[in-house]
Amino acid sequence: MWITRKWYCRSFQMVFRFALPLLPYRNPKIIPSVAGVADVCQKKSIESVMIVTDSGVRKLGLICFLQKTLSEAGISYCIYDRTVANPTIWNVEEAREMYLSHGAQALIAFGGGSSMDCAKAAGARIVKPKQSIRQMKGLLKVHKKLPLLIAIPTTAGTGSETTLAAVITDSEKHHKYPINDFSLIPRYAVLDYHETLGLPKGLTATTGMDALTHAVEAYIGNSTTKETRMMAEEAVHLIYQYLKAAYDDGNDKEARSGMLKAAYCAGVAFTKSYVGYVHAVAHSLGGQYGTPHGLANAVILPIVLRMYGRACEKKLARLSKNAGVVERGMKDKDAAACFIDWIQWMNDTMGIPRHLPEIQEEDIPVMAGHADKEGNPLYPVPVLMNQKELERIYREVKGR
Question: How far out from the chain centre does Cα 164 lie?
């Protein structure tokens, strides 16, 4: 039975790989400053917008400059600031209601990946009022053009400003799942390093390692293209150069700018070449325990890479050499091992734990089932795993 399923998964992935050049992927247009948002709205005759953010971002006053520029341009706005760390169906529905009651014409996602995911899903519900979020779960279930969506990241990691995915939590079922559709890719992304200055060390670390996970999983999968390999290599090079610097000094402008670019490049890479089991497991942990996505990815990544073993050795070696993490003359086996050791060293030096002991043994089969359904057959991973094999990842992440 598993042999047949493996054949099906690889066949499914092969079809997607050959279809990549024909699919309507697009990269968002980049706006270098928040000041440019009002100009875009005016050019598109938009008079009213909704800003989707979270209470923490709003309390810090990070959206004040955006509010000022919109007001000066005569653009009215409402603010939805109740997005939680793992945005829920309730968040999406509440944001949708505010958008409609205000008569907004566009969405501005301001914050981390959670705010962007909430804005994307709200946009999907706005254009498809008769289709629930649960019905949109999976691949290509939206099919309709969203209202203008502008993404302004305040963290450098999720890459959600470039991707076709929104990850939403079903609180009732403790299940977190992605909605994937080309219409969810934002039309514009604002890469303004000023919005990331002073980001707390913990968020800097976990969101940065989130970007690294995107780049690595995209690179070692079986659906890469010349563009996605180049973007992943650029992302890893920038993370190697700038993440620790941004962590050590939150006001390092060069490092913050470099990390924003890294997150963008990694986002472009994985939205076309997909991710892998690290993400599938991380999503299930987020749904079950509310584990922050970047933290989960950071902890899981070195564990899963070691479990893949020789299946990803050559690709990891090529990535680490091309990104400048190891010397080009190093043997592939040694280069791959050094690259994984570097990932673990980054986690250790930035205070990210090696394990997540809150995982409960009795929850593992259910979470592994969710990860199995998410990952298979979509994710073109180096080594295919069924539910029972995926359970081993959770036990390794839990620690002994």
Answer: 10
Task: Report CA-CA distances (Å) from 179 to 16, 200, 245, 296.
Answer: 17, 29, 34, 19
Cβ atoms 342, 256 nearer than 8 A = no
- How far is 270 from 292, CA to CA, in rounded Å? 19
Q: What is the pTM of this model?
A: 0.92
- For 120, list phi and psi in degrees, rounded to 5: -60, -50
Q: Which residues pair with 167 in a beta bridge?
A: 178
Query: What phi and psi, each to the nearest 5 degrees, are found at residue 223?
Result: -125, 35
Q: Report which residue type is found at 245.
A: A
Please, which residues bridge with residue 168 across strands?
177
329 burial (CB, 10 Å; 0-12 / 13-18 / 19+) is: exposed
Examine residue 178 and say whether the peptide bond preceding it is cis (omega within 30 degrees of 0).
Answer: no
Q: Is 130 left (phi over 0), alpha (psi -120 to 50) or beta?
A: alpha
Q: How many residues does the chain have?
A: 400
Amino acid (1-letter code) at residue 340: I
What span, in angstroms and rounded, lies between the C-alpha atoms of 95 and 121?
A: 9
Taking a C-beta distance cutoff of 8 angstroms, is the pair 243, 259 a contact? yes
- pLDDT per residue as tens digits for the range 163-193: 999 999 988 877 888 899 999 999 999 999 9
| Dihedral over Cα of 236, 237, 240, 243: its sign | negative
